[in-house]
Amino acid sequence: MDAYWDLLNAGRDAVTTMSPERQAVELSKSDSDAMHVIPPDAQGGYLDWIDKFDAPFFEMSPYEAVRLDPQQRVLLETVWEAVEDAGLTTDQLSASRTGAYTSCFASQYWNMLSTAGVHDIHALLGASRYSVAAGRIAHLLNLRGPALGMEASCASSLVAVHVACQAIQADEIEMAIVSSANLLLCRNLELSGADAGLLSPTLRSRFGDRNADGFVPAEGAVTVILKRLSRAVEDGDQIYATILGSGVGSNGTQTQSLTDLAVTGLQDTFDVAYRAAGVSPGQVDYVEAHGTGTPEGDMTELSALSNFLREGRSPEQPCLVGSAKSNIGHTAIAAGLTGLLKAVLALRNRVIPRTLHVCEPSAVFDREDSPIKLATAREVWPDRERPGIAGVTSLGMFGTSAHMVLTEAPPTVATPRRKPSGTEALLMPLSAKNPTALRQLATAYAETLETAEDPVDVCFSAGVRRTQHNVRLAVAAADRQSLIDELREFGSGGRALFPVGSANRTAERPRVVFVFPGHGSQWTGMGRELLAESPVFAERIAECDQGIAQELGWSLVERLREGTPLSAIDEVQPALWAIQVGLAAMWRDWGIEPDLIVGHSMGEFAAATAAGALSVRDAAMAVCRRSRLMRECAGNGEMWAVGLNEAQALELIREHGDSISVGVLNSAYLTVLSGDAAALAKVVEPLRQRGVFCRQVSIGFASHSAAVDPMLPAMRAHLAGLRPRAAEVPIYSTVVDRLVEGTELDTEYWVANLRQPVRFASAIQAVLADQQQRTVFIEVSPHPVLTNSVEDSIDIAGANAEALPSLHRNSPEMVSLLSSLASMYTHGYVPDWERVTPGGRYVPLPRYPWQRERYWVNPSDEPDSTTSAPAAGLHRQEGRAVDVDVITRQIKLRLAEVLAMSPDMIDPTVPLTFSGLDSLLAAKLRTRMQQELDLHIPIRDFLSNHSLNDLATRAHRTGYGPAS
Length: 964
Prior knowledge:
40% of the residues lie in helices and 15% in strands. The chain has 964 residues and is an alpha/beta fold.
């Protein structure tokens, strides 16, 4: 679109001879079609890459792509680009009442397929020009509105816009996608036009010129998206122009010939359009005419415009008239949308491009009082002290005429930002369907960020207004330049410092487990940045602060803002509890909801608060009173982390009785011993001499041992007022080593929480026991102290899981959080991007970088065979195939043959439909499985979410035999 406007605005002519690349496509046709091939010296508006297509993006197999008419290919690509430009996502469009309206000329590619002997159903579907193209778009985007192919000759695409607008106004649909494509693969149209005297012998379209002699053929594809203005404004969309009204009519018997135009018929159509728009003809500033440059056609159209636009017009303000066909040629069935797009861009830029190749304007313009003037020079849009108004005309060869009335888009109202621009940390999510495309996108986004008014808007748009594909990159940065540098490095082939991942869009989102650690993650300055940057965090901390102040008489908010060191246990533990509660609120505000919550020692207070089992007030009371009691008993024992498992630790302390306990079981490699300092010294020193990991836990108190017994009665008295309630999120207790409902978290539970060992490793192992779903553990703390232990358990279990921190000591807090959120995104979790980038506004983004490859039928292509020589069968033993790897390999080979692709291109872990398998090809594949491998796989299994590995595993287990 930008290139189209640059061409129009600069007054350039795109009509030329074929490029060498396009000639190569033409010369690849069969000899029998040679007489119809466009000669290399012919002039027109030609596209270069019509033989190329990004089939994998549209989950289309090479088999189908070769059979797909290039007109449908360019329609699919322009539709996707229009959807992206509109800031729509497939999730927003899916199941919506959105209509798809298309127009294409009859397939010339079908002749080439037929000559090559390709007559199968995919060739038929690929060549059909009517509703198949619209249905393909509706299927691609899961649209539930009408899918219609429109036919009104060269007026088709503008008639389609009219029909779509009527459906929107009648509330039949919410939105409409209107597309049209015209490609010239043979000379049939040119020969017919030349025979009728319609083609220009001078090879230029000279609309409005006294000596106009015909049009020049051209190729093109255009897609527009239509929506109610009120909704587009409400949604913050990028609005190019507003359609005020439209009209469609025909000649009837006003002309003697089917192909002649009638002045009165055109005027009737204009009248319908302007009455519908509520606009006086005298208000129109510019009309983009059909303007083919044929003598009769130009005279009829210009006469009708001159007659109609005279009403209410001052002679000093004539309506300018022009035609894009002078720049690019006649795109035939796509001409209406081509002209509409020119008018829209002219309104948007308030510039009327000049019409080319005019030496002497037509006699229609000679009259001094002529209400129309040919736009032979680039002009700034006339200033009428009102929004500009434009008309667009499109004429069909058989009497149908369409006219549309447009005005400028309303001025946008800036949405107030939550905070001044430039102060936020940034998170940029990017995704593609191909690793190469992802790197190209990174470079393009870096360039966009260079000139963007506000980088937050770019990040917002990338998350909220872009479809999220399966190959993903997310970059967190403290500022614009750091983000640009990271994107450029990745785009140039460098190593990504931030997560790059692949998310299977059919898989369930990862299971999320919030992990709240106990004492030890505190650091001076923690939370200060988040208090200033995150309203959600600040609000939650303020709630906690009230409870702490009531219990202990000091303000946590003041101490965090001032960076006051926290050293006493009744300062550290209430602060850690509040920070954890605030961080959990931030994660949930971003849309990361926990499926399970696990607390560790005093971290269970934050876990209970986050799960809703304890109110903020009750949790504050409990943690403050307990930590105050612990301060009074400070110095009563020590705690040491040692590199032993539970059995080794119990054997080590067996002779020390109650003086030493196994206080914490973090993983199979890390246990915390708790108890008498002198006794611990006797145990730890020999371990250190043997090189076993030993580190003192700086708490100054022997929790989870007999040393706490003297304070338990007082603790029962102080916590007697607790009123636990049912948890909103499941909690796995590290005290009783099972799920708890929340109501169990009464006074006695918290006494046991301090006295009994922390069975954290067991809790993580229980979570990992269910490996049906990927799991992400998020440590909700100011610094990771349990992440390594979680990773140890993951490694031992061989689980599909990952552990992420929230913050890091003395590191930028928001960037740390966003970095972990980036990992969540790359592994398939879709955050609430509007909450991640609050106050962001939609801005245009780089379009998707197509990874086109050649898909073209050749004369030497042989007719497809549905069967091949049987391969070695899968010998069965007691109904079971010998080896699952053999089955996988054999199925892959046949799938690759059916899809006409290399076996290496098939990912055995994703659904077969992602490789382009449809119901027709599935039937063919099923037949080959039966005949060659004696596998009787139902078609529904091919088309479900089963992957190749799934089918092979089931075949190995159940046999998929004739009786299955």
